[in-house]
Write a structure and sequence with these properties.
The chain contains one helix and five strands. With 94 residues, it is an alpha+beta fold. The chain has one domain. The longest helix is centred in the middle third of the chain and has 17 residues. The N and C termini lie close together (6 Å).
């Protein structure tokens, strides 16, 4: 089995300013960020067009730093693409 490279393309991103660390401990994302992630999973993610290739949509939620300091959370939609781009669904089974 050979290794295949994957390319990621970010589609859209939402920033939610919020404390990430409190007394040195990571805290959970704010409710608005969680709601946006769920909204995208139920909408954009499920409605992503299925194609013959092995493109894979994603919805991510993660903490981010700005100017070296924890600044909040990001919700991002994106798509993973196989490399080479001509890879078909049947090609991934080998």
């Amino acid at each position: 089995m050979t290794e295949r490279e994957v390319r990621y393309e970010a589609i859209e991103e939402w920033f939610f300013p919020s404390p990430v660390l409190v007394n040195g401990e990571f805290v959970g994302a704010p409710a608005e960020a969680l709601e946006k992630r769920e909204e995208l999973l139920e909408g954009w993610f499920k409605e992503f067009p299925v194609s013959e290739t092995v493109e894979r949509p994603s919805v991510m939620l993660f903490p981010v730093k700005k100017d070296g300091e924890w600044a909040g959370f990001v919700v991002r939609t994106g798509v993973y693409y196989p490399y080479p781009p001509t890879l078909k669904v049947d090609d991934r089974i080998n």
